[in-house]
Amino acid sequence: MGKSTLFNRLLHSRRAIVDPTPGVTRDPIEGQWTPDGADMPVMLVDTGGLKLERDDMDDRVAKKSWERIASADLVLFLLDAVDITPEDEEFAAMLRRYAGKTIVVVNKADSPERDARAWAHASWGYKDMVFVSAEHGRNIDELEALIVSRLDWSKTEPEIDEHEDVRVAIMGKPNVGKSTLLNRLLGTERSIVSDMPGTTRDVVEGRFEWKGRAFTVLDTAGMRRKAKVTESVEYYSVNRAVKTLDRADVVVLMIDAVEGLSDQDKKIVKLATDKGRAVVFALNKWDQMPKIKNSFEASKDKLQYFFAQMAYAPVLPLSAKEGEGVDKLLKTIVDLFDQLNTRIETSRLNKAVHDWIESSPPPASPRARFKLRYAVQTGVNPVSFAVFATRPELVGESYRSYLKNKIRADLGFKNVPVELELRASRKRFEDLEKS
Length: 435
Description:
Layout: H1 3-11, E1 29-33, E2 42-46, H2 56-71, E3 75-80, H3 86-95, E4 102-107, H4 112-118, E5 128-131, H5 140-150, E6 166-171, H6 178-186, E7 204-210, E8 213-219, H7 232-244, E9 250-256, H8 263-274, E10 278-284, H9 295-306, E11 315-317, H10 326-340, H11 346-359, E12 372-379, E13 383-389, H12 397-411, E14 418-424, H13 430-434
C-alpha cells in the first residue's frame, strides 16, 4: 500500500526499506518526526502489513502491528486509491474498535482525476479521510495538518532521558575484538573470547567506573553481511545489536587495523548516526601493525575518506588485548557524552546564528529568496536544533551543512552528530537581532 514510502516521505529520509514486494517490513520501524505546526516531536511507526494467508512469521508480524495500533494515539489506515482488496475489508473490520483514533489515508491518488474513484473508500464510515500520493508528495501538507489537529497535545511534554552513567555500545563485524575490549574494561571474563566468528549471540552488559565516572558497556553480536545472515538465531542477534543503539550514548566501532574497513562498518555507522549517537572509530589490533612513521595518520586519512560525512568523529589506535590506548578511548568517550548533553542558551545560539549569517549570507536569487529568522535547541542526546525560516524548502543542502558545521565548531559539539531541522516561521527577522 506504500506504508514505508509514506513513512519516509514524512521523515524526509529513507529510514524504511521500500520495495514492491509485499511484506518487506517486519519489525515496526520508529522515527522521530516534528510535523509542521507542532512544537514537539511525534513518534512515527511503520508497521508490517496484514495478510489473509499467513505463515508463522506473518502471524508474528501481525501481532506486533496490532500491539502498536492498540498503544498508538493516532492510526493512519492506508488504502489504495483504486483497488479494494480482501485484506482491506478484513483490516477495516478489525480496526472498527479504533475508529475514534483512525484517519483513512488513501494513497496513490496521484492526480485529482483519481480522487473521484478514491471516494469509494468513504463507505468504510471513518470520520476523516485524505487523498495523498506518498511517492510524489501530493497533499502531504494536508495530511500533516490533519494529524496535528487530531492529536491531543495538552497532556504531552518532551521526554527527557537524563542519566549519569555513560552508555557505550561496542560494535563491529565478527571477531574484531569486541569481547576482548569488554573484558578489559570490566576486568573479568564477562564475554566468551574465541577466534571463531559469531561467538557472542546476545547483548552482554556490564558496569564499571573510571576516574569517578560510571559506565554501562554493551558488547553486541557482530554484524554480518546480509547474505551470511541465514540462521534465525543470527537474524535476531543482529536485530538485538541494532536495538542496542536505542540505549547507547556512544558507539565504539571496532575496526580490524590489519584487515581494514568493511561494508558492514559503513552500515553500522549509518545506523548509529541516524539515531544521533556519537561514534568513536577504534582501530583495534594496532600492536600488530608495522612500525612505520605516519602509519596511523595514513590509516586515519583512509578511514575519513571512506566515511566522508564523518570527519568530525574521533579515530584512535587501540589494542584491546594488550590494553594500549584504552585510557585515551575512555577519555574520548566521556568527552563525547558531555558534548551530547550540552545545552546552549537561546540568546547565545541566536547571537551565533546572526554572526554566521553576516559572515556567509544565504545564497539568493530572484526566485529563491528566504530569510533565517531565529533558532532554538530542540534536544540533547541526540543533539538537535530547529532554525525557523521564511521559506525553509528553499534552504539548500550546502547551507544546511554550513550551519551544522558552525554549530559543531562554535558551540561545543565538534565530535558529535547534529540534527538540524528547518521550520516555517512568520516571526519578524528583528527577533533574531533583539535576542
